[in-house]
Amino acid sequence: MVRAMRLSDLTIEPRIRAPWAAIDLGESLIKHFWLRAFALYLTIALPIFLILRTVLGADSILAILVLWWLKPMFERPLLHFLSMELFGQSCGYFSTLAKIRQWLFTRALHGFSIARLTPTRGMMAPVLLLENADLRTYRQRAKVLGIGYSNTASWHNVVMFHFEAFFYLAGLALLSLFAPDLFASQVYEDFTANRSNVYIDAFTLLAMAAVAPFYVASSFMMYISKRIELEGWDIELCFRDWVASTERHVQATGLERTDA
Q1: pLDDT at residue 258, rounded to an integer
Q2: What is the pLDDT of residues 101-119, one digit of tens each?
Q3: How would you class 241 by CB atoms within 10 Å of its CB: exposed for 0-12, middle for 13-18, buried for 19 or more?
């Protein structure tokens, strides 16, 4: 998908950035789309989670573990619309859902299995979804794209995990503050016994949905930054601008000579 886009439509400055600078750009970018991304995430994740709770039992912790494993599935619509927005093609909430066949089934088996536990999975997700790479190509691309970025992408995973944990624990802390009796009688007992609870599950899902847009956007910007570095997008655009300005100069000169 990205390969088919026109570089002239890029909505960011195409220049080489350090990995953490690319992450910072992603954080700034998602601020404009966070609500849409949050809604998209919950639209896909919430029904699946309710089905899991019904099938596996309301007190089973397995439902939330399966939901955690399926996080790449819920992140795909976010990556899809961000890739469109990055190249100047507006993609709203409903139009993103309407294109479910494009972002859900493309290399889904690989994305939800082998690539799931890869420390750099966020940065490499566009290779599967946007480039539609097979397993062999994915490994080659991941090796090349990871040069100079893999360590940062791995630490980025760790940082985002801690943000999720912070929001989750903050939700439980607020519940204990405003409903201490409820927290003591139900939530705390289930929490210490490693049992599922509707409040525990709700805070877990909300924490995942709140952090996911930042994770996807910053990972995507690392991918884009590495491609700019490898493929010289900045040089290509400068060359195109130079050619265009030269053509305009020649045309203007020709018109002046004709008038004379």
Answers
A1: 53
A2: 888 888 888 888 888 888 9
A3: exposed
Instruction: Extract the tokens encoding 43.
Output: 């639209």
The Cα–Cα gap between 205 and 166 comes to 13
CA dihedral 68→127→90→105, nearest 10 degrees, is -60
Q: In the structure encoding, which two tokens stand for residue 170, read together?
A: 């903050």
Q: Tokens at residue 191, please?
A: 């929490």
How do residues 31-76 score in pLDDT, each as one tens digit?
989 999 999 999 999 999 999 988 888 777 888 899 999 999 999 9
Closest Cα to residue 83, out of 147, 24, 1, 28? 1
Question: Backbone phi, then psi, for 231, in 5-degree steps?
Answer: -105, 0
Token couple for 225: 């930054």
Q: Which two tokens stand for residue 111?
A: 């994305």
Residue with tokens 């939700």: 171
* Helices of type H across 57-195: 62-69, 71-86, 93-98, 100-104, 108-111, 121-129, 135-145, 150-178, 180-182, 188-192
- In sign, the C-alpha dihedral spanning 29, 32, 37, 38 is positive
